[in-house]
Design brief:
The complex is a heterodimer of chains A (245) and B (227). Chain A is mainly alpha-helical and 245 residues long. In chain A, 78% of the residues lie in helices and 0% in strands. Chain A has one domain. Chain A is globular and about 60 Å long. Chain B is globular, with a radius of gyration of 18 Å. Classes of the chains: A mainly alpha (245), B mainly alpha (227). At the A-B interface, α4 and α5 of A face α9, α10 and α11 of B.
Chain lengths: 245, 227
């Protein structure tokens, strides 16, 4: 039997599939958040150098990783939408963007909270922090461009082009910021390469998995809303049970 | 009609845009005056100590150049868009990328080159050494075309949108950060007595990269905006 790979690339079919998938991601996300936070706060031992402050990395590191990954995911979907002219890919790209921006913001915020006790400053112009800030600007540019074009198809294509240009630029920005920083001064404190305690690793990976599942769940929920909004004039939307009631 | 060669097409677009800019000189002069004013405001803001001024000069001049190039980018395509010329340009049988490249070059000659030529005077205001001014000018010569080219992508994407100017800066400024870093880095290296050629080589690499890809990307952006 031939499998129709493109069945779920139509908003009509994907809408129902996304609705069915959301609980499968949202509930494990909630459980893993609870488990991860428990291990992180109760099981993992105090760090020898950083005391209790290090525990903020359990949210900080997953948030930073996801903010970078999600930009690539977003750019990938945007590129698919631009190349193959599939509506759903563009919708997915604009559904991912707010979550990515949120994670970039959380990463910066928790980084500042960690930096104050550890470095004695809320903000230092460290290469990673600066490029994270620029990443947040890129997300905001994508969202702003998409929001200011009225025609959704043109908005999709224009912001897709911007996302692709941005993703080409991200490595250039990262390395230029890194060299700029070393030119001025080396970063005062680096993550020491010491091996992590096993409970710390468990907490970190649990939180990472939880953040991934959360990101997928909210993206699916958001893409459902986008589908409803964009296809509101179609017949199949009018026939949906939740719309009719 | 005789089909023009790409090079003569490029020259035609550049000549046309320069002629238009010459006919409407205030636009060019406003950008220049803005540049000079922004640069002159900094000593008033941070105080007249020459040591500090010498230190911040490259950064101030670069950021001012960046801002004033943003200022003039809005006009890059909008006039042609409003009077319908742009639509005709999209219909031309030759490559749109070459047309866009011509507009980028003309934009740089009108809004980038004058800034570079003014820089020595402003550099003296900030008590920069002759050598530092020389490197700053080299950096600006390599970097301001990149600003015009990246900006053209933003200008094409935001064509005809409400609040386009502010949006344009939001889109383009993050992309310009590498240029800023290498440009000021070269001057910083020369004042610290280090070798500045690596920074300028990176700027050259960015220029080549931008020259290769941005005309094509901006042309695609124009097609998206005009459809």
């Amino acid at each position: 039997m031939a499998i129709n790979w493109f069945k779920y690339s139509a908003p009509t079919t994907f809408y129902g599939l996304a609705g069915k998938l959301i609980p499968w991601f949202a509930i494990p996300a909630a459980i893993l958040f609870a488990v991860g936070l428990y291990i992180g706060f109760a099981v993992a031992p105090m760090d020898a150098q950083q005391g209790e402050f290090y525990r903020i990395i359990f949210i900080h590191v997953p948030a930073s990783m996801l903010s970078m990954f999600l930009y690539m995911v977003m750019a990938g979907y945007a590129a698919l939408g631009l190349i193959f002219n599939t509506r759903l890919s563009s919708m997915m790209a604009s559904a991912v963007a707010p979550t990515g921006a949120l994670f970039a913001f959380i990463s910066l915020w928790t980084g500042a909270l960690w930096g104050k006790p550890m470095w004695g400053a809320w903000w230092v112009w460290d290469a990673r922090m600066t490029s994270e800030l620029i990443l947040l600007f890129l997300y905001l540019g994508f969202i702003a461009l998409h929001a200011s074009i009225d025609d959704p198809r043109r908005a999709d294509r224009a912001s897709a082009l911007l996302a692709i240009v941005g993703s080409v630029n991200v490595p250039i920005i990262y390395f230029s910021v890194k060299w700029w920083n070393t030119l001025h001064q080396g970063s005062t404190i680096k993550f020491s390469g010491t091996s992590m305690h096993i409970a710390m690793q468990q907490a970190m990976f649990t939180m990472l998995a939880a953040c991934w599942l959360y990101a997928i769940a909210v993206t699916l929920a958001r893409v459902r809303s986008i589908i409803l909004e964009r296809e509101r004039h179609t017949k199949w939307i009018a026939e949906l049970a939740e719309v009719r009631s | 009609m005789k089909k023009r060669s790409l090079f003569s097409l490029l020259m035609l677009v550049i000549r046309r845009d320069l002629l238009l800019a010459l006919r409407c000189r205030t636009d060019v002069l406003t950008t220049l005056v803005f540049f000079v004013m922004v640069v002159s405001l900094f000593p008033l803001g941070v105080g007249p100590e020459t040591d500090m001024l010498r230190k911040i000069a490259p950064g101030v001049l670069w950021v001012a150049a960046l801002l004033s190039s943003m200022l003039s980018l809005g006009r890059l395509f909008s006039a042609d868009y409003l009077d319908g010329t742009l639509e005709q340009m999209l219909l031309v049988p030759q490559s749109l990328s070459v047309l866009v490249l011509g507009k980028m070059v003309a934009h740089w000659m009108v809004s980038g080159l004058p800034l570079v030529l003014l820089t020595p005077v402003l550099g003296l205001q900030f008590d920069m050494s002759v050598e530092a001014i020389g490197v700053l000018i080299l950096g600006l010569l390599l970097g301001t075309p990149v600003l015009s080219m990246l900006g053209a992508i933003g200008a094409a994407l935001t064509l005809g949108l409400r609040g386009g100017g502010v949006l344009l800066s939001l889109l383009v400024l993050p992309l310009c950060i590498p240029v800023l870093i290498f440009g000021t880095g070269a001057v910083g290296a020369v004042t610290a007595g280090l070798n500045y050629s690596s920074n300028l080589s990176m700027m050259g690499a960015l220029l080549v990269l931008a020259l290769t890809f941005t005309p094509w990307v901006a042309a695609q952006a124009l097609r998206i905006s005009m459809e």
